[in-house]
Amino acid sequence: MANQVLVGLQWGDEGKGKIIDVLAEEADVVVRFQGGNNAGHTVEVGDEKFVLHLIPSGILHEGSLCVIGNGVVVNPLALYDEITELEKRGFDVCPRLQLSTRSQLVFSYHCLIDGLFERKLGDNKIGTTKRGIGPAYADKVNRVGIRGSDLKHPQRLEQRFRAQAEFYNRIFRDAGEESVDTDSEWDKVKAVAEKLAPLVEDTVLTLHRAAARGDTILFEGAQGTWLDVDFGTYPYVTSSNTTVGGACVGGGIPPNRIDHVLGVAKAYTTRVGRGPFPTELDDADGKLLRDTGSEYGATTGRPRRCGWFDAVATRYAAMLNGVNEIAVTKLDVLDAFDTIKICTAYNIDGQRVTDMPSDTDDIERAVPVYEECPGWGAKTTGVRSYNQLPQATQNYLARLKELLQSDIGIVSVGPERTQTFRA
Ligand code: GDP
Ligand code: IMO
Ligand code: MG
């Protein structure tokens, strides 16, 4: 497979990290193109568990070069910690990692203002990860952001950092909030800037040279389609384009360099943070999904909201991203159920709706229409090929394929690398 983009088709945490890790075996370059350390991508290899936030999940395969592209917002302190943690665990990260000159940097003032905005919103808060993601993208668009290339120029970095920190400190003081200790923050930033500067490159050139050589490039989406700032359940979204176009803008590659789009969807649905979620279950089934699927945020530890598979939202997401195929993850979590439901339509004000509405208030009022499938009453975690799956499981996947109007190419039946097979 040449160049492939992987995107989440739901509200994030679809198991993208796990699938990237499996695909990275064949990839020469793995690229993050949007988001920041709001992402938490979990990879399990044997008894070891890794949670990647900024570094592409391909880092666990020695053969792949990892690129943090221009579309990513990067907290340099968090990146440095992540590198150090992986190096402690035996990975030689720095020679295999590049950070775009054009990436935007996230500082503590972004995180503080993220929290302040949330408090001001009160009951209407978004439920952000408080990693400063929205404010860092706002600075980018306001043309006052500080970029990866600034890490190579300490004097310029200091002057820009202090100017921005002072700007935000005025806001914090006016709001009666704690402000940033600019001197001590700068000391921390300066120390990691020295360490990160050698990783900073024009990654557009890296990717285009790799493509010209015929290398395989894998683009690792973060978050999910319904958290996309344009297409998601606005305003309950993140601040970047999580959908396939984000890979072009946030990686610096043209659409005609993308050969394949893989969408990742859980066999049910979860959401962290606030916002509409039509199939959310606030009952024993929801609890069983959360407990069986260990549905707690990889970044914030928050319990994830859980519900049945939403074919309305996921079909729209598959269409929007132009997916060639879908990876269905966490199928094993449904082993525990006697009956499984799939949402095939919404009832909104008495009307049957089969296309995801673009108005968030309409999604808020959507009542899911379900069809029921029999459970399979067997454990699938040991299954290693499609044909070994119980017939009822195959029927469930066949129904999803029909509803999503997309091929299902990959199935995952556990968190470990080996618990994955082609459909
Ligand atoms: P991401 O953000 O899309 O990479 O997903 P997360 O890592 O935040 O959440 C997915 C969680 O499900 C992680 O704890 C994974 O280890 C786990 N996981 C992934 N695939 C499977 C699977 O097929 N079955 C089970 N039981 N867990 C899985
Ligand atoms: P991965 O890559 C799930 C959610 C937050 C909140 C909203 C905005 O692991 O799938 P932000 O901090 O981005 O401004 O928060 O987006 N969110 C995620 N939910 N998975 C993620 O990433 C997420 N990243 C952000 O919970 O609702
Ligand atoms: Mg996650």
Care to describe what's here?
The structure is a single chain. This protein is of the alpha/beta class and 423 residues long. The chain folds into three domains: 4-104 and 198-260, Adenylosuccinate Synthetase, Chain A, domain 1 (3-Layer(aba) Sandwich); 105-196, Adenylosuccinate Synthetase, subunit A, domain 2 (Orthogonal Bundle), CATH 1.10.300.10; 265-422, Adenylosuccinate Synthetase, subunit A, domain 3 (Adenylosuccinate Synthetase, Chain A, domain 3, Alpha-Beta Complex), CATH 3.90.170. 33% of the residues lie in helices and 21% in strands. It contains twelve helices and 20 strands. It has helices spanning 16-24, 76-88, 108-121, 133-141, 154-174, 182-196, 203-213, 245-251, 284-292, 311-321, 360-365, 391-404, and strands at 4-8, 29-32, 41-45, 48-52, 65-68, 73-74, 97-100, 104-105, 200-201, 217-220, 260-266, 269-271, 305-307, 309-310, 325-329, 339-348, 351-353, 367-374, 407-412, 420-422. The strands form five sheets. Strands 9-7-5-2-10-1-11-15-19-20 form a ten-stranded mixed beta sheet, sandwiched between helices. Strand 16 and strand 17 form a beta hairpin. Helix 3 packs across helix 4 (133-141). The two termini are 16 Å apart. The model has no long low-confidence stretch (mean pLDDT 97). Residues 12-13, 39-41, 298 line the site of magnesium ion.
The name of the CATH superfamily of the largest domain reads Adenylosuccinate Synthetase, subunit A, domain 1
- Quick one: overall form? globular
* Helical stretch tally: 12
Overall radius of gyration: 21 Å
Percent in helix: 25-40%
Ends: how far apart?
16 Å
What's the total number of strands? 20
| Widest sheet: strand ordering | 9-7-5-2-10-1-11-15-19-20
Bound ligands, each once: guanosine-5'-diphosphate, 6-O-phosphoryl inosine monophosphate, magnesium ion
Q: CATH class of the largest domain, please? A: Alpha Beta
Structural class: alpha/beta
Mean pLDDT: 97
CATH topology of the largest domain: Adenylosuccinate Synthetase, Chain A, domain 1
Give the percentage of residues in beta strands. 15-25%
CATH-defined architecture of the largest domain:
3-Layer(aba) Sandwich
Low-pLDDT segments, ≥5 res: none
Structurally, the number of domains stands at 3
Largest sheet: 10 strands, mixed
